[in-house]
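Much of what follows relies on a compact textual record of a protein's fold. Each token is a code from a learned vocabulary of local backbone shapes. The record below shows the convention in full.
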Amino acid sequence: MRYLASFIAVCCLVAGCATSRPIPVTQELTASAEEQMLWRRAQEEQDTINRSGVLYQDAEIENYLNQIAKTLQPNSISPDISFQIKVVKDPNLNAFAFPNGVIYIHTGILARMDNEAQLAALLAHEMVHCTHRHSMRALRSLKDRTQAKTATAQNLAQLLGISDR
């Protein structure tokens, strides 16, 4: 019985270390049902943020940020991504991007910027998250890991005679 418990513990540890194959950066990701669902969820989150009252409403700043983003935008990106920069009233040093090209920058990080080059670097970093579809890659990687762990647990249960699969 002691060996069985040790065997189960080792199998659980191995299952926890299981990794999925990464999605190559060069692999084309089409607007699958998964990605469309991701964009819908992103839009719902954006609607919540936009209604929450945390946006810093200054058309001049938004125009300035959007002009910088426009100069950084590569000509070869997907036509369905149109970058839009919004400012969030928050003292934290943070920015984040949604997969559809909407980028939120906190006032805290804007206040700490010394020059336009730093701002351009920040915007370019967030834009890459969109153009390289990092959200979709993360979602697929998570699904692959979850499926691998589920399969490992099912195999272990079958090996131990708990499952008749």
